[in-house]
Amino acid sequence: MLQNHSSIALSDPGLLTQCRCCLSEDLFCFLPLGLHAPANMFIRPEEASEPHPAFPLDAQVCLSCGLVQVADQIPAGFFEHYLYVPSGASTMHTHFKGLAEALEARAKGGLIVDVGCNDGLMLAAANAQGSKTLGIDPAANIAELSRERGVEVVVDYFTPETAARLAKERGKAAVISTTNTFNHIGDLHDFMRAVDVLLEPEGTFVIEVPWGLEILEGNQFDNIYHEHVSELSLLSVRKLVQHFDMDIVDVEHMPVHGGTMRVYVRRTACGEAPSARVVFMLEREDAAGMTDRATWIAFADRVHDIRERLLAALDLIKSEGLKVAGYGAPAKGNTLLTYFGIGPDRVDFLVDRNPLKQNMLAPNTGIPVKSPEAIKTEKPDVLLVLAWNFLDEILEQQADFAAAGGRFLVPLPDVRMI
Question: Over the stretch 171-229, which tens digit does the pLDDT of each residue have?
């Protein structure tokens, strides 16, 4: 789609033959998404004419545990320079303050280690309440943002070797947390070995990720991209951690990111039984048919239908001579734009509050990314809400745009105009 550059299609290593969580071989490729550049690999305008890598993006589901996984991984080292930061969304400040409080309730003064701490938003909130913290993140550029918040960060991948070194240097962790990082990990069993090394015998491991059931029911195919190698069901997490003599003891369901689960894991030797919420959410997954082939065929059919209706809506808007801007340049937005074939002919530009993405071009499509101020200066008629998971916040921020007659085109969970 990128109008003035070429893509290099890199070889497909083949679909995974085992589930990342339960190790089953009962896998079904339900949504081949074609060739995609890494969703956060934004392009400098002066490099637009250069060739850029593109990789196959195939979504397969494990019919034993309901894990949705991407078989095709990007090269090692990509996360050492990263462009997503949670601070750009006001919602996440409140959310992470609540998470920090929940972690301290479990840690009780012990060490909280946050893996994939990003710009330190959550750990800064934990430090403000007096918690003892340490961050781990492989992205050196983002780690600097954490340090500016007063957060101590180890720049490294979380491996059993890293965990052993930290356990020796800092002592074991009362709580290990990971928010929207667990779904980025190619080898979840290796990650769990690191958790096993670093976590105190009575400690708690807390995972926060989008809930696979919400992805299914909300048609959220755009959550699938090379960095998101897994979209986890609660059952898949349970089967994974049981390999390490651990179990889920509690879970919270919350609306952030279009539907998130916060999962609390402890060693089975602790004797804490799963809460009623765990049982309820597992029953919901079973009732939804998350391990049934027909469920995912129907999901793919819905995605194809959404594509046709969204393209028709955009083409009608453009036929009327109106200008369309995309609100948000999230990774998920790039999955949607690329798979649906939406380029600068349909969307004039994107806006994003993250300065790391501004004045860049979106991968695959070449749509320019600007500051939200461009909404006032360039006066689009319609905003295509790519960051639909923050729709309420966006509607509040853009009240003046709406008051002047601007409209919002929301693609998911279904195409609608506001």
Answer: 999 999 999 999 989 899 999 999 999 999 999 999 999 999 999 999 999 999 988 89
Q: How far apart are CA 208 and CA 261, in angstroms?
A: 6
- SS3 category, 44: coil
Indicate if the alpha-carbon torsion angle 121, 123, 128, 129 is positive or negative: positive
Largest CA distance in the chain: 66
Q: What angle (nearest 5°) sits at the alpha carbon of residue 346, between those of residues 341 and 350?
A: 95
Average pLDDT taken over every residue of the chain: 90
d(CA 75, CA 72): 10
* Chain segment 102-145, per-residue pLDDT in tens: 999 999 999 999 999 888 889 999 999 999 999 999 888 777 88
Distance, in Å, from the CA atom of 409 to the CA atom of 135, rounded to the nearest integer, reads 38
Is the full-model pTM beyond 0.85? yes
What's the CA gap between 370 and 372, in Å, rounded? 6
CB–CB of 204/174 below 8 Å?
A: yes
Domains of the chain by start residue, with CATH:
311-417 (3.40.50.720)
Averaged pLDDT, 378-403: 94
What are 197's two structure tokens? 């090394």
Q: Name the residue with tokens 């749509």.
A: 367
CA distance 369 to 140: 24
Integer Cα distance of 109 and 106 in angstroms:
9
In DSSP terms, 59 is beta-bridged to: 31, 70
Check: CB of residue 83 under 8 Å from CB of residue 354: yes
> How many other C-beta atoms are found inside a 10 Å radius of the C-beta of residue 288?
16
Contact (CB, 8 A) for 174 and 110 = yes
Closest C-alpha among 141, 167, 140 to residue 154: 140
